[in-house]
Automatic annotation (TrEMBL):
The active site is at E668. The lineage of its organism: Bacteria, Bacillati, Actinomycetota, Actinomycetes, Micromonosporales. Residues 378-710 form the Peptidase M14 domain. GO terms for cellular component: extracellular space. This is Chitobiase/beta-hexosaminidase C-terminal domain-containing protein. It comes from Micromonospora viridifaciens. Its cofactor is Zn(2+). Keywords: Hydrolase, Metalloprotease, Protease, Signal, Zinc. The keyword tRNA-binding does not apply. It comes from the Bacteria.
Length: 825
């Protein structure tokens, strides 16, 4: 099946400013259609298919996996709804029928949505404060209850879990009530939605609007369980952003930027600020913004032949002509004549004078007799080439289809050939002493805002270093590495040829998918090409189809762009933080990023201490995003990416965290913005208009608010690097005598991992780790029925160990923590 990519959510090419792109596509025009293609004399079979964005509804994650595996291009803005998953697909008219045949419901073309009073999506998170500590016997638990405000409207989001949620007969239902503030009674009972992913029960959830902030909630299960929980504030009390300082300089980026412009500015920054900036050039060159020249001759039947040049189009492939010639006479052999760049195939004729060359024979002759001009010739797609080839009306010119610029695209030729990717490195001390932060933007070519967001953050660092104390602390105490575009070939293709290009331009397709009409479907999804949780190992979310937008590549790390990332983190071992910036959807996530669909077996989840640190950092980062114009990345959109979005096999975050211990975030910028006038939330897009309604969707607003978040990530890293405070931990309710049994748990003063023993031995780094009750819940509860001594120590995210205990040495101090729970029978 042909894979067709998304064009853009707003159905018009956004205006670029600042000397880049100043016009928009004409009304009704398809920005994915190369200028001049119509009426060029080329076969319509080589035109890209018209696509449109439609809203769809899926019954659940299983259907989502099937639709993605079939090669459909789904928008990242997926939303969990009570009866399944809603999202957006970019499809042709023919593909709408294919989706419907798979059971997908087509909802229409509207790009806005209203919050339901039922749950509208999400995965539970760490840190909800229950009214009481969990008990080992609880059948219902409040995972989180969060209140947030945006544009004058209050929202309550709740996640709760029942230990009996997996049972399907009868299906467990749950009711949610809330008070109207401290001291008021519970009321407004609502049914919560049961969330099942890949056949596994996750939790129940609810999201709705309220006029008054509640203090507590009560959740009741149909099986009789009941619990209460306090309501926490989500992103309500963040630190003022750096931009709150009147003297702080910001708002530097005035339009979208091509890779050439991004790289040129990075190199200019290094020249302007040599005391704090330099360029690191990545060693593996990309495949290049280049294609072989091609033509499809003779339609699509058994007599059709697809021809590709040996040279790249710009190096001689363009301008080669191929002509199929019917000569007078009979009993004539199939031969090929070459004069300069003109190739004439003299078709064979039988004894009666009829043409007798098949497509397969003509293709073979072109490969062997074209004097090296033609590298690849074959029957069309899956044809066997048994049809008799007919003469053409004249020479057919081969082209790489890169010489026609889309209307309104930036002026100037795009460099052809392999590209070298520069990394802008910013830091006063670039010698490995400070924690490194890697910002990687535009893995996916069509995502233009991540590049401008990252450039804006770079500009703020260098322009404010000498005048702003907080910026100086960042530059003095971190080592920042910025890859402003990790996919320059694909990004150029998105700017100049096909706005919806997602992947790089490396064509791994065999003959059945190598004709020029497939040209918008070639390439590797760079964020599926890594080694951990790979589709090559059976994890879901990566495709083996070379024309799928999630094509994982022929092998792990097959692409130079992904090899470069591994080279960078291995060469600069001080890199301890990473943000892979994408769009759109407004999610912030980390590990686990992938799962094996059968049984929903995820890659290893981070230890409880790392999970808590991720959440702590996320709260800081997202508070800064909200500070710009109250854009709230909601709690259901934060956490492990396989829980928040879907399984994405072979993503970069997974590899960097599990292989190198790097705190690796993924960010889908461009979250939904609440419109108080309509009561709806407006979703983002890959290429929103640069200048739009300030309070709603625009490339400029997204760039500014998410640059706030990147700056805060730098501050998180700087604080981490200076952290030498030892964590403390306690066993709650603590040592003592208990009658019959006791429920105990650990608490820490900060995000920290606890290693413990209960057999009297010294705890080490090989001892059991204190775990969450369930994924992204608070820590487990030990139900103690026999006298037990707990020995333990805690380690925070920066590696500080409680009480200076050394778990690697068997010394006499034994200064680990210990507590004995004595059970009286």
């Amino acid at each position: 099946m042909r894979r067709t990519q998304r064009r853009i959510a707003l159905f018009a090419l956004p205006a670029l400013v600042g000397g880049v792109l100043m016009t928009t596509a004409p009304a009704g025009a398809d920005p994915a259609q190369p200028a001049g293609a119509a009426g060029s004399g080329r076969s319509h079979l080589e035109d890209s298919e018209a696509v449109r964005l439609v809203r769809i509804k899926l019954t659940g994650a299983d259907m989502l996996d099937k639709v993605v595996a079939a090669g459909f291009d789904l928008e990242h803005g997926l939303r969990r709804v009570p009866s399944g998953i809603e999202g957006e697909a970019v499809v042709t008219a023919e593909q709408i029928g294919e989706l419907e045949a798979m059971g997908v419901e087509i909802l229409g073309d509207d790009d806005s949505f209203a919050w339901s009073e039922e749950a509208d999506g999400g995965i539970q998170t760490l840190g909800a404060q229950a009214a009481r500590a969990f008990s080992h016997s609880d059948t219902v638990r409040v995972v989180r209850a969060d209140w947030f405000t945006t544009k004058g409207q209050g929202f309550l989001y709740v996640e709760a879990r029942t230990t009996e949620g997996q049972q399907a007969n009868p299906i467990v239902t749950m009711q949610l009530e809330n008070d109207s503030g401290a001291g008021t009674s519970f009321g407004s009972a609502r049914t919560m939605s049961r969330f099942v992913d890949s056949g596994q029960y996750m939790f129940h959830r609810n999201l709705f609007k309220l006029d008054t902030r509640p203090n507590q909630i009560r959740v009741t299960s149909s099986t009789g369980g009941v619990t209460t929980g306090f309501v926490s504030s989500w992103l309500e009390n963040g630190t003022p952003p750096l931009t709150a300082n009147p003297a702080y300089k910001w708002d530097f980026v005035d339009g979208y930027r091509t890779p050439q412009q991004l790289y040129s500015r990075a190199e200019e920054i290094a020249r302007q600020y040599p005391d704090i900036a330099e360029i690191v050039y990545l060693p593996n060159k990309t495949n290049g913004y280049q294609r072989k020249a091609q033509a499809t001759i003779g339609g699509t039947g058994q007599a059709a032949v697809v021809v590709s040049s040996a040279a790249w189009g710009h190096e001689g492939g363009n301008g080669i002509t191929v002509e199929f010639v019917n000569r007078p006479g009979a009993n004539l052999p199939l031969t090929v004549e070459v004069a300069g760049k003109a190739v004439r195939v003299l078709l064979a004729k039988d004894a009666s004078g009829a043409l007798s060359s098949t497509a397969a024979q003509v293709a073979a002759a072109l490969r062997t007799q074209s004097q090296g001009l033609i590298d690849r010739a074959h029957p069309y797609r899956t044809n066997t080439g048994t049809g008799i080839v007919q003469a053409t009306s004249g020479p057919v010119a081969l082209t790489d289809f890169l010489d026609e610029k889309r209307a309104g695209a930036p002026e100037g030729d795009v460099p052809r050939g392999p590209a070298t990717i520069p990394v802008l490195r910013i830091g006063k001390h670039r010698d490995g002493r400070n924690p490194g932060v890697l910002i990687q933007a535009q893995d996916h070519a069509r995502e233009w805002v991540p590049a401008t967001t990252s450039l804006e953050a770079a500009e703020r660092l260098v322009h404010n270093y000498k005048s702003d104390w907080e910026t100086k602390k960042i530059v003095d105490n971190t080592d920042v590495f910025l890859i402003l575009s990790n996919n320059p070939d694909g990004a150029n293709y998105s700017f100049y040829n096909f706005a919806s290009q997602r992947r790089n331009l490396t064509n791994h397709c065999a003959d059945d998918n190598a004709d020029p009409a497939r040209r918008n479907s070639w390439g590797v999804d760079l964020n599926r090409n890594y080694r951990v949780g790979s589709g090559h190992d059976g994890y879901a979310g990566g495709s083996t189809s070379c024309v799928s937008d999630t094509f994982q590549g022929p092998e792990k790390l097959s692409e130079p762009e992904s090899k470069n990332i591994i080279w960078l983190v291995e060469k600069y071992r001080n890199i301890k933080f990473m943000m892979s910036v994408h769009s759109n959807g407004g999610q912030l996530f980390w590990q686990p990023g992938a799962y094996i669909a059968n049984g929903r077996i995820t890659t290893p989840r981070p230890p409880l201490g790392d999970e808590a640190f991720y959440w702590q950092a996320a709260g800081r980062i997202l508070s800064q995003v909200k500070a710009y114009r109250q854009t709230v990345v909601t709690p259901e959109n934060v956490g492990g990416s396989s829980d928040v979005l879907y399984s994405s096999a072979g993503n970069v975050r997974e590899d960097l965290y599990h292989t190198y211990g790097i705190y690796a975030f993924g960010w889908e910028v461009g979250g939904s913005v609440y419109n108080p006038a309509t009561g709806n939330w407006q979703g983002g897009s890959f290429q929103p208009p640069w200048v739009g309604t300030p309070d709603l969707v625009s490339g400029h607003s997204e760039t500014m608010e998410y640059a706030n978040g990147i700056m805060e990530m730098f501050r998180v890293a700087a604080d981490w690097g200076k952290d030498n405070k030892k964590p403390t931990s306690t066993l709650v309710p603590g040592a003592g005598k208990y009658s019959g049994s006791a429920d105990v748990r650990f608490e820490t003063s900060e995000p920290a991992t606890i290693y413990y023993t209960t057999d009297g031995s010294r705890p080490t780094l090989e001892s059991p780790r204190y775990q969450a009750t369930e994924f992204r819940e608070p820590g487990q509860v030990f139900h103690v029925t026999e006298t037990t001594t707990f020995n333990w120590f805690s380690v925070d995210s920066a590696g500080n160990i409680e009480q200076n205990y050394d778990p690697t040495k068997n010394d006499t101090r034994n200064n680990y923590r210990t507590a004995t729970i004595t059970i009286a029978k």
